[in-house]
Design brief:
The chain has helices at 13-29, 60-78, 93-101, 124-132, 161-174, 205-219, 223-226, 241-248, 272-280, and strands at 5-8, 33-39, 84-90, 106-110, 112-114, 120-122, 137-140, 150-153, 178-184, 232-238, 254-258, 285-288. It is an alpha/beta fold. Strands 3-2-1-4-7-12-11-8-9-10 form a ten-stranded mixed sheet, with helices on both faces.
């Protein structure tokens, strides 16, 4: 997709870190950067007949303009040659950014933002946008200036194909390695011959491990040939998937996961693994649905 990189700006330290990463992404992709501030002042707080930009005489417009000017300066310091546009949109942040994502190649947000009253929010906009966004969503969190390989969460589901392709493209653009990690356990549905088999039935561990090796190989199929310069470290780990990925993210520069993995419920737009990473990963997290790469 050739649309701009969209970043949500609210003036918080987390959103300014998101601006830097979004500018870097826009520069590497050769697309523009769009700075968006969602102004969601409640109607109940606008005096009768008052102008939305001047509730109770406050210089809200000037404050927002100042925030966007600061963000634009930060973006240009990171990527001097990118084209930057800025927009102030009346509406709730999640709704505004979801609409913006429909024409974007990537949406970037911080994991902690400021509410309209300056109260810190944890993950509300980030989590909802990851679930409902129409393009890949990159959430900036964890340690500052993270370095390391791209960590790809492999589950073997068709829905995760977009995440695999995004991870390879990102690793190629940044000139970094790719760690493809597939965590498995005896609780996997592949451990049993029939869906109705109870979890205490005997299973062949060797056969199950071979099956998980196949899942990992098939998930990467075709991409290693398309990206021959990306060094791939295949890791098959027996353990709890969320714990394993969060632990591995301590050495990564970015974690990439699908929105819903194998075993997820069709009605849930954001799976438990993606949610866990958005709240606990030690580095930025990209959530990609199939077809969004």
């Amino acid at each position: 997709m050739s649309g701009p990189v969209v970043v949500g700006v609210d003036g918080s330290p987390s959103s300014m870190a998101a601006v830097e990463l979004a500018a870097r992404e826009a520069g590497l992709r050769g697309v523009g950067l769009r700075l968006v501030h969602a102004f969601g002042w409640p109607a109940a707080h606008i005096p009768p007949g008052g102008r939305i930009w001047e509730p109770s005489g406050g210089g809200v417009r000037e404050l927002i303009d100042g925030t966007l000017t600061k963000a634009e300066r930060r973006a240009h310091e990171t990527a001097p040659h990118i084209v930057i546009t800025r927009e102030i949109v009346v509406g709730e942040p999640v709704t505004v950014l979801e609409i913006e994502s429909r024409t974007a190649s990537l949406a970037v947000v911080g994991s902690r933002g400021l509410s309209r009253f300056g109260v810190l929010l944890l993950g509300s906009t980030a989590g909802q946008l990851a679930a409902h966004g129409a393009c890949p969503v990159l959430v900036v969190r964890g340690r500052p200036d993270p370095a390391g390989p791209v960590l790809l969460a492999v589950d073997g589901s068709p829905a995760a194909r977009g995440a695999v392709e995004f991870a390879f493209a990102h690793a190629a653009a940044y000139g970094t390695d790719l760690v493809a990690l597939h965590a498995w356990s005896a609780r996997s549905d592949r451990a049993y011959d029939q869906p109705s088999d109870p979890p205490f039935v005997t299973y062949d561990e060797g056969r199950l491990r071979d099956e998980e090796e196949r899942v990992l190989a098939e998930a990467l199929g075709g991409l290693r040939e398309r990206y021959p310069d990306v060094a791939v470290d295949r890791r098959l780990v027996r353990g709890r998937i969320r714990h394993t990925l969060i632990e591995a993210s301590a050495d990564a520069g970015l974690v990439v996961a699908g929105a819903r993995g194998r075993g997820g419920f069709a009605g849930l737009l954001l799976g438990s693994v993606s949610q866990a990473l958005l709240h606990h990963a030690h580095c930025p997290v990209a959530v990609v649905r199939s077809g969004q790469e």
